[in-house]
DNA sequence: TTGTATGCGTTATCAT
DNA sequence: ATGATAACGCATACAA
């Protein structure tokens, strides 16, 4: 068996209470006793048992994270943000990725009780309502990029604003027919981006602008497939806005094969600003989203929720993180030749 | 407070023991009693307390995962593999990414006791030795892609074999001077890939081959920077093998800016086969590594370690996962035009 | 078939 | 300043 607090107490000829006091720095202990216990504990390489401790303290110092089946860059960044933020406060992350069907999610939530102090749920796919119903009652909750905020704290990325800004940017470059390749049906990020696109088309600007929406699923392949339809369309769009960079890359690939020059013959823009965007040829214009910060903020919010009292009466808050336009060569706005030439148009919008 | 097993027992007018038996399906219980308890438990939406349960059962159904600061695709895939595999067996994952310095890691390991049944450590950066010393003694351990296997179970990817195969492939295409852009110093994956590259150069083949090694750090930027030096070198390499795809993309970008045609003027190959590799122009030849499977296998191994008895005398095993060559246009071996044209040369090597 | 009682490892409350 | 002891929520050996 593992060495327990009793072993330390016995070896030091004191009671377990004293050992506990020393190790937690609580209560008065004679200096000499403290040092002796510390030494012995180290010599025995004693490590407190987490489960036992949290059974009595009612705190696990652990946060549960529920994620859907996310694509590479996004997934790792959001976790990194959470992890950095959590560790700074001595918290751990118990993550569960690719939760799809509701039954599985339910089982997951059940298993979380007694293991986490709070839950962070990222669910771009609609359907958070079900979640609330069968979640262990008093478990604090923070929603990420969710469709219906309901009465829960939520942090989201300004997808709509980013798409709006990008589409307007394309219009400002003179494009009058702008195609849009969308994301998966039911995905909240995707529908918000489409909303921004539509809004920008409708809004008064320099001249009329028409649109053309094509289906996509956030994967390269779907962008590749959308290209043909775009090129066949009459009037042919002079610009394409893909709902994410992966699809934009698929489009870029297809355009090159068809010998359609980007951006001279057709402009291209993406969303996400993944690291390789600026290393493509032409460098891909995109909308940068603060993924790391999204994760970090979620944890911060959760932590202040946890320390603000047992049943925090603090009203649910929702905040929106701003996106940033990364203008590069693919949209035809600039003619620079080297990567790293990043011109940024920033766009901020913070909600309560 | 949350509803406990006692609440259920009281509501059902039975003892907690009976409730426990029903919920765990152990021991004989009268059918009618069972149904009644089940109904009441559901009505009260009772959920067992994880910490309390694991305190007595000595099992947490949770696996600890220690990861370094990984790049996008790799990170998400390995976690996905673990998660899928873990959930299938009713296990959870408590992950901690970007563990860098040893002190932090030590604190992390301490906090793991009583919260996890085993530990999976991915540490391409050398220095696992320290880990073993201050880890809670009887915690089962599985190493991933580690330098020194020591006496621990470990699963690794055949980095050396993949690099060997790719370099030979380039030689077989007639290249006699092949440059190599390496990964971060101290990174085990990187050094194994370099080892394979060197081995292939030394080994007898069709004619002599010379090399040229350049530093890199696995990021696009470092590949971009390496390009100039490669183009200046005399004799100028006719092929470049980048230790990962990100750097290959940087190289591709730089070559295009310098108007150096790939593959006609210089061939290019990467490592990892990230999803966008086949959508680049030219499509990037690369070495596919089974990341998902790496994670999945790690969990499987851990689980069989856990169920093989309290202190499994089963000798530490190490296995190596095979890589696969993905030959595309960038190396000049084929002249296809459409993405999805994947020719595969497989290479297997399984160790005990 | 069911109930009683004990213990898991820790912290917290009260004595001393 | 320190020690004895009661929880915490659950599973289980044993008794009934």
Summarize the topology.
The structure is a homodimer of 352-residue chains.
Chain A: H1 5-12, H2 16-24, H3 31-43, H4 50-57, E1 62-66, H5 72-88, E2 92-96, H6 102-112, E3 118-122, H7 129-133, E4 141-144, E5 153-157, H8 159-172, E6 177-181, H9 188-202, E7 210-214, H10 220-232, E8 239-242, H11 245-257, E9 267-269, E10 286-288, H12 291-307, E11 318-321, E12 324-327, E13 343-346
Parallel strand pairs in A: 1-2, 1-3, 3-4, 4-5, 5-11, 6-7, 6-8, 8-9
Antiparallel strand pairs in A: 10-12, 12-13
Helix pairs in contact in A: 1-2, 1-3, 5-12, 8-9, 10-11
Chain A binds a DNA duplex (16 and 16 nucleotides) through helix 2 and helix 4.
Describe the structure.
The structure is a homodimer of 352-residue chains. Chain A contains twelve helices and 13 strands. Chain A has a six-stranded parallel beta sheet, covered by helices on one side. Chain A starts with a helix and ends in a 6-residue tail after the last strand. Chain A has 352 residues and is α/β, with parallel strands linked by helices. Chain A has three domains: 5-57, lambda repressor-like DNA-binding domains (434 Repressor (Amino-terminal Domain), Orthogonal Bundle); 62-158 and 291-321, Response regulator (Rossmann fold); 159-289 and 324-351, Rossmann fold, CATH 3.40.50. Chains A and B meet through helix 4, helix 5, strand 2, helix 6 and helix 11 of A and helix 4, helix 5, strand 2, helix 6 and helix 11 of B. Strand 2 (92-96) of chain A pairs antiparallel with strand 2 (92-96) of chain B, so a sheet runs across the interface. The first copy, chain A, binds a DNA duplex (16 and 16 nucleotides) through residues 4-6, 14-18, 20-21, 24, 26-30, 33, 48-49, 51-58, 114.
């Amino acid at each position: 068996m593992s060495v327990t607090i009793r072993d330390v107490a016995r070896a030091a000829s004191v009671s377990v209470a004293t050992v506990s006091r020393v190790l937690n720095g609580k209560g008065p202990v004679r200096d000499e006793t403290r040092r002796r216990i510390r030494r012995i504990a180290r010599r025995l390489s004693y490590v407190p048992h987490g489960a036992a401790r949290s059974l009595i303290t009612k705190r696990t110092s652990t946060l549960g994270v529920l994620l859907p089946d996310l694509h590479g860059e996004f997934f790792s960044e959001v976790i990194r943000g959470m992890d950095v933020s959590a560790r700074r406060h001595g918290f751990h992350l118990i993550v569960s990725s690719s939760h799809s069907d509701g039954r599985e999610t339910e089982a997951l939530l059940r298993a979380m009780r007694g293991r986490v102090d709070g839950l962070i749920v990222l669910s771009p796919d609609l359907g958070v309502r079900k979640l609330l119903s069968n979640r262990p009652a008093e478990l604090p909750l923070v929603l990420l990029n969710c469709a219906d905020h309901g009465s829960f704290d939520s942090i989201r990325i300004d997808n709509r604003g980013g798409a709006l800004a990008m589409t307007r940017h394309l219009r400002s470059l003179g494009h009058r027919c702008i195609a849009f390749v969308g994301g998966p049906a039911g995905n909240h990020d995707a529908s918000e981006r489409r909303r921004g696109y539509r809004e920008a088309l409708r809004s008064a600007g320099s001249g009329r602008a028409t649109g053309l929406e094509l289906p996509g699923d956030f994967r390269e392949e779907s962008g590749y497939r959308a290209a043909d339809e775009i090129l066949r369309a009459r009037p042919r769009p002079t610009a394409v806005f893909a709902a994410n960079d992966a699809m934009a890359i698929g489009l870029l690939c297809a355009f090159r094969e068809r010998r359609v020059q980007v951006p001279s013959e057709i402009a291209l823009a993406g969303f996400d600003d993944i690291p390789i965007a600026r290393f493509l040829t032409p460098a891909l214009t995109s909308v940068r989203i603060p993924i790391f910060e999204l994760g970090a903020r979620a944890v911060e919010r959760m932590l202040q929720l946890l320390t603000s009292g047992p049943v925090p009466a603090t009203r649910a808050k929702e905040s929106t993180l701003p996106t940033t336009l990364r203008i590069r060569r693919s949209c035809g706005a600039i003619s620079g030749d080297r990567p790293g030439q990043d011109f940024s148009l920033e766009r901020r919008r913070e909600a309560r």
